[in-house]
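Thread title: Can someone regenerate the structure for this chain?

I was given the following input by a collaborator and told the matching structure tokens would be attached. They weren't. Posting the sequence so someone can regenerate them.
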Amino acid sequence: MNLNPLVSLIKDGIVIVMGMTLQRRGRHDARMGAAGLLTLAVLAGIGAAHTAAAAPQALPAGCSGTSPIICRYGVSPGNYEVTVSIGGAAAGQTEMWAEARRLMLPATRTAAGAVATYSFTLNVRQPEGQPTGQGGTGNPGLDLRFAGSNPQVSAVSVQPAAQPLVAYLAGDSTVCDQSTIPYTGWGQMITTAVRAGAVIANYADSGESSGSFLSNSALFPALLSKVKANDPVFIQFGHNDKQTSATAYRNNLTTMITRVRAKGGVPVLVTPPVRRQFNGNRLTPTALHVNGVGVNLPTEMRAVGAAQNVPVVDLTAKSKALVESLGPSASAQLFLRSSVDGVTDNTHFSQYGATQMGGLVLQSIREQNLPLAAHLR
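Best answer:
Regenerated them for you:
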């Protein structure tokens, strides 16, 4: 094994941190679910394993700590190609998170003396989580966090991405990058399934309705300013449109569709995931997003999709089938439970629940062959 000296180079906006020369590359595939539940990739990225030197290895420049290992790079907002090598002299188990709890690599084992390489495209923003700064603004630049029972990092490289496909997310707290455990949005879990060359840019924000998201300069206008030709924009609203009339809701969605198309982007509507509110073994109308003024929001969104010839990811229908199949008791694991999470919340997801909801979204993207489908693992 040929080992290079550890090198850190920052020049012309490019950061390169190298630890060792790697010999082979292969691919770990995503695997979907058991017991009727969709599960995101167990192994993600492009990986290769090989024998490493027996001597303990220093962390790459910019990284510190042991469990977790934190790596910070002072780059400007934008999209970056990130390649990491995990593993080393000792056996390890490593998972990789980026920015505000975006899961990039689920817990991955490496044998003693083995190193595996994975590549991702990452979106860097400031604030790094929710665009309005809810939950904290994070640190400027790019943050990577390597956790697990024995995380090991041998090398990291970061450089600007050329022209990635950017999939934008517009939505509420069930979608957004939640900074605070245990709250988790499905948008921060689908990142494991996206190949390098495409990237998720999550502009969802807690508490937003279709109208408030449209009018807040940090949200839809900020997102729209970055959309380029063929970028998909996934639009999910309903949880906070509790008093929105059918006319206003349809107008808000239609306005977003029209403006995304004017930039050359590809709008995709996503009906809101259900709440966990049962009447017997069936979800209530409120759980299915019939709002306080009697508007069936998913039905209205489907109608807008048909009228505007826009694809619809029917997450309401898919999540209804999942939650009702589990029943009032077992479905609790998808949401926040006092016994596990310290809070009971039948709207917001646990990490496990967000992973399942993200899996349903990914399933629809594949089924309809939407623009992101060709970039999924």
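The first helix runs from residue 210 to 215.
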